[in-house]
Amino acid sequence: MASKVFVITGPSGVGKGTLIKELLKAVPDLELSVSATTREPREGEEDGRDYHFLTAEQFDQRKEEDDFLEFATYSGNRYGTLRSEVERRLAAGHSVVLEIEVQGAQQVRAAELDSVQIFIAPPDPAVLRERLAGRGTDSAEAIARRLEVAEQELAVQGDFDHCVVNDEVERAASELVGIVRSELGQAPAA
Question: What is the rounded CA–CA span in Å between residue 61 and residue 47?
Answer without folding.
Answer: 18
